[in-house]
Amino acid sequence: MSIEIDQLNSRLVDAETKLKTEIQRIRKKMMITITELEMTLDVANKNNIDLQKTIKKQSLQLTVRSEAAIEIE
Cα separation of 43 and 37, whole Å? Predict the structure, then answer.
């Protein structure tokens, strides 16, 4: 009986060790994925800001041209 309990405890320790290793592997992979997603989001946000600036400039140019065309008529 004592030998069986020791064997079960040994299997339990082995299973816990394997699970902890797997959890660490998955956690590391998830952290890398999160970092990559954060970097991608930063790039997308910067591009969005640049595009908004471009839209604002073009809108201003169109407004100026429209006003100039109205004055000419």
Answer: 10
